[in-house]
Design goal:
The protein contains 14 helices and no strands. By secondary structure, it is an all-alpha fold.
Length: about 300
């Protein structure tokens, strides 16, 4: 078994694993528009989460893992917050380029910063300025147009609020939990939300209102691929955080913006304008600086 000193002495391996995980996420999430043409949002979450949960349960059985949380309240709260965030995120990803929706998620640090201010915490000027600059970069990428898809763009920022709250709970109530336990509870909650949504959906022909349908064969392949990719990405990230400091590894997660833009162009011909490129660069720079400063973003 590696000692802690040995585990944090491989930064380049950690960087490679993190970028690899972000590539899997970029490819996986860019498959959402193809799925949205055939099934609804609630069936998407139910099937995708159920498949991933089945794979995780099989892995746990073979490897002898325990998936029982030590703190049920904390893990359930985290899973619920992240489940809400992902329902909104994938709902937006069916209509907007994944790069835009991911950029909106990176505004989570600003909402956490504002929440801290309301709680009486006073961030230093450097962190506040960098976070605000990153938020402006996110706006440059998302470019919400309230005359067309403005509500969907705005919803992507709501997802960031719940995502940020879930991350905050992770570092406080779930500090000693296994990553596999947390992802297992999260997947179970997301599958449950999908099932409830299917029961309550009146039926329609849009991604948001469509009830249960028989998915075509290629949709099953995409869903299985997304489920497996998400678990592999989590395993790679978990290993990366064992091989390097959290601040160093976290900085490389911002590579997902560039990777999502590249994959979106290859798969769907989606392009980004100069303002979006400038926004991505701003997010990358501020994200790296905040992460390497050790700020709790």
């Amino acid at each position: 078994m590696l000692t802690r000193t040995e585990m944090v002495s491989q930064p380049m391996t950690a960087a490679g694993l993190t970028v690899g995980a972000m590539f899997l996420i970029a490819v996986s999430d860019n498959g959402t528009p193809a799925v949205a043409e055939h099934i609804g949002l609630w069936q998407f979450h139910y099937l995708r989460s159920s498949i991933a949960l089945a794979v995780l349960a099989a892995m746990a059985s073979v490897l002898g893992w325990s998936l029982a949380p030590a703190n049920w309240r904390g893990v359930t709260a985290r899973g619920g917050l992240h489940a809400i965030a992902m329902v909104i995120y994938f709902g937006c990803a069916a209509f907007l380029p994944v790069t835009q929706v991911l950029a909106a998620l990176f505004t989570a640090p600003l909402f956490l910063l504002l929440l801290g201010v309301f709680e009486g915490k006073r961030p230093d000027a450097g962190r506040f300025g960098l976070t605000l600059l990153g938020f402006m970069g996110c706006l440059a990428v998302v470019q919400p147009d309230f005359s067309t898809l403005g509500l969907i763009s705005a919803a992507s920022f709501v997802a960031a609020i719940f995502y940020g709250l879930g991350n905050s709970v992770t570092s406080t109530w779930c500090r000693d939990e296994s990553p596999w336990v947390m992802v297992g509870v999260y997947l179970a909650i997301l599958a449950l939300v999908g099932a409830i949504g299917l029961l309550l959906t009146p039926g329609g022909d849009s991604f948001l209102t469509r009830s249960w349908v028989q998915p075509p064969r290629h949709v099953w392949f995409i869903l299985i691929g997304q489920a497996v990719a998400s678990l592999i990405a989590l395993a790679m990230l978990t290993r990366a955080y064992q091989l390097a400091t959290p601040t160093f590894t976290g900085a490389w997660e911002y590579s997902v913006l560039i990777l999502a833009a590249i994959v979106g162009y290859v798969l769907w011909g989606q392009t980004v304008n100069f303002a979006a490129v400038l926004g991505i660069c701003t997010i990358l720079i501020t994200g790296f600086v905040l992460a390497l400063r050790g700020d709790p973003t």
